[in-house]
Each structure stands twice: as C-alpha cells, then as structure tokens.
Automatic annotation (TrEMBL), chains A, B:
This is NUDIX hydrolase. Keywords: Hydrolase. It comes from Arthrobacter caoxuetaonis. GO terms for molecular function: hydrolase activity. The lineage of its organism: Bacteria, Bacillati, Actinomycetota, Actinomycetes, Micrococcales. The keyword Hydrolase applies. InterPro entries: NUDIX_hydrolase-like_dom_sf, NUDIX_hydrolase_dom, WH-like_DNA-bd_sf, WH_DNA-bd_sf, WHD_NrtR. Residues 205-236 are annotated as: Disordered. The keyword Transferase does not apply.
Length: 236, 236
C-alpha cells in the first residue's frame, strides 16, 4: 500500500516510522549585548512537508547503526560538529505530531562548549538561533526545543550541567554566565559565588585565568559526577 | 515483502519496527528474610522468538495512542496496575538487539508503592521476580533491567526517588529501607538518619506511625521536586 493513495483511516493503520533528531545547545555571545546566551543550530526544510521552515537536524536510522551513532552522524552531516556531550533526551511519538503515517522521533541532545561551537558549519540552510527566538519550527519541533530547555534548567539544580558547557577549568564568573544564559536572567554575583563555593562538586586549582587583568581570577575544576545522567557508561 | 521469505540482507533493509516495554519496580518483603527488596513483574513469552523465556511486559503502539498511553495500557493489561509514577526511561534500538527486522523499544518505567503492588495480577504467565534474580530474559531485556537499576541508583543521589516508593508520609526507617532495597546493602541507621534529617526535601509532621509500639516513630513528609525528572508537567 503506497501512502500516496491511502485514505485517512488507512494511513492511521500504517506502522509508525522512526527518525532521529538532535538539539544542540551552545553558549555564544549575544551580538547586541555581548552577554553569553543559549543558541542552537537549525536546518531549513528543502522539501515538503513544512518546506522552507526551520527544523531540528535529523533524519532516518540506517540499517546497521545504533541510535546514538545515527544521532552523531546526523549532527556531523548537518553542522560538522562532533560534541563530547551527546545523549538521548526523549522519544516523541504522539499520534498528531506529524502528517500521517506517524513518525516517532528519538531526540538526542548535545551540550557544546564554545571552542566546539566555533567549528560549526553555517550556510544558507544551516543557521544558529537564540534558543528563546527560534520562531515557528516544522513539525512539533517548538515543543521539543521547549522540552529540552526545561530539562536543561532542571539539570542546573543538580549542579552538574554547567560544567558540560565549560572546559576542564573555569572561573566562578564563567559558571555564573552559564547559569544566567540558561535561566535567561541575571544573578547576583556575590550570592552566586557564595552558593557555588559551598558546592561539593568544584574545587579551586592553583591556576589563574590568563589575560591582561590586574587581579586575574582563580580557576576552578569540576569534580562531580558525569553530567550525562541518562547514559550508561557503556553507551558513551 | 514478507519477513518470512526475506534473506538476511533484505531483512536489514526493512525499516525498524517499534514497541513499548515497561519496567515496573516495587518494594516487597523478601520471603526468606522479611527485608524489603526490589521486585519487578515479568511476562512469559507464549510465542517465538524466545518462547517460554520471561520478558518485560510490552507490545506494539496502537494507531491513536500516545507512547505514554501505550505504556499505561500495556501495564494495565498484563499486571492490572495503574501506577501513579510512570515515565519514559530510555529508547533501546541497537541493530543487534532482536532478530531482524530491528525492533526499537521505547521503555517506560514505573515505581510502585506497596499498596499498589499488592493489587497486581499474577498467574502462570505473569510473575514477580527479585530484581537481582531475574535469570536469562528474552531479547536484550537483561540489559534493560540492568540499565533501569543503574538509573534508579543514580536517582537516590538526587534524594527524590525514595519518595516515589512511599506514601505521602513515612518514617525515617522506611526511607532507609527503600535505600537499602535499591542499593542491595544495609546502611548504618544512625548515620543515615543524620544525613536524611539535614536534607532540605523532607520535614517532620505532627503525626506518629500507628501501631502497638511503645514509642511510635514520627512521620515525615516529602517537600522536594517531583521525582519524575523526565516528564514535562504536560506529559504527566
């Protein structure tokens, strides 16, 4: 039975098909304010449905690859990125999320450090958007982005996620910038610093941030659990 | 093309099919020691492949139901349970996890309170097993159970999961029993009590456990975040 000739109730009976999508979050300076904000790359649809709308990078699963490998390949093909932090986020499969037959999307997410994000490809069909200004996306991708943002904010509470965006050492001000970018609001520096220093998951190093400043800030190191909460060590 | 007549390379080209499975954890007293231990219900396979082996409850997705609804229906049909705590765990879809064509399983998990678990159906094809003594299961279901146990133990660190197994009020000893059942080892009562009382997520009530004891223990209440970390409020 070809989907082309099927009527609505016949299409409802077709088995769902499967796709892999990725949400890639990176911190980048806002061009207007210079503050770090949260960005993600989107891909322009070059066919129907949703022709010309922006969508999350994604595609079908190839016969011999794992779900994680499919996500990594998709990411590589669309953005030229190979993020260290890539894990399964959620499977979306509501019956109304796409024109039938139903597509179930297994969504992976990547948290990308600034040095990695700088390597991303951009062209007329791949562009970076501020996470809070993506406009109307194809399919239910607005909901997926909203869900990913919600999960990201929840992860802040566990005190591990910020370090996925930072290098192996960082200043306390850099951690605050990550929190501010993810939460979308300014935080009091003194309060934040106090709270962070009482966290068990970071410790001071003997190093200081390089640069031309009179009193360079101290660098810290993350010592907590792997922030990829979902991934079995053998799946990494 | 019927899978029955396809050769290996043809089967590899078939699109993956989709199934929903559920892991249902409940605390039950061990019949030998009386200690609370972690149990899960399994279903006997009554057809090939893996005829007669035990497997996680599950089945296909119906055309008009959401993934979560399919998980709840499967659970209801096999065990007669309707758990309050049911959320998506992970999607398993490696190319070698089942005889081809590939099946991608979206696994939900339920944490069931003792009063709910007592209502579960059991017959010759549905039985409860201690989570650490399930034997050899069909498909990759041993790996899925192992993954679910790993996630469950990780959730203990966040200090929220124990309350999914308990009622709205509980004694500190009951919380320790949950930790002991999930971790599979005894904990020092005095140390545990001290750590727990410094947690921000529980507070004492003015009530005491009913029963015939001389000094009935105080009941506490959980005040932290919803332990379902994965589920968007609108998905609950």
């Amino acid at each position: 039975m070809s989907p082309r000739y099927a009527n609505v109730s016949e299409r409802e009976q077709e088995p769902p098909s499967l796709a892999i999508s990725t949400v890639i979050f990176a911190l980048r300076p806002d061009p207007d304010t210079g503050n770090l904000t949260l960005w993600l790359p989107l891909v322009r649809r070059i066919r129907q449905p949703y022709l010309d709308l922006w969508a999350l990078p994604g595609g079908p699963l190839r016969p011999t690859e794992s779900l994680q490998d499919a996500a990594a390949r998709n990411l590589q093909e669309t953005t030229a990125l190979a993020p260290r932090y890539l894990e399964q986020l959620y499977a979306f499969g509501g019956p109304d999320r796409s024109p039938s037959p139903r597509v179930v999307s297994i969504v992976y997410w990547a948290l990308v450090q600034p040095d990695e994000a700088a390597l991303a490809r951009q062209d007329e069909n791949v562009a970076w958007f501020r996470a809070d200004r993506v406009g109307t996306l194809a399919f239910d991708h607005n909901q997926i982005v909203e869900y990913a943002l919600w999960r990201l904010r929840n992860k802040l509470e566990y005190g591990t996620v910020a370090y996925a965006f930072l290098g192996s050492t960082f200043t306390l001000a850099q951690v605050r910038e990550v929190y501010e970018a993810v939460l979308g609001r300014a935080l009091d520096p003194a309060n934040f610093r106090r709270q962070l220093q009482s966290s068990v998951h970071i410790e001071p190093t003997d190093e200081y941030l390089q640069g031309g400043r009179h009193r360079p800030p101290r660098l810290y190191r993350y010592t907590g659990p792997d922030p990829r909460e979902n991934s079995f060590p053998s799946q990494r």
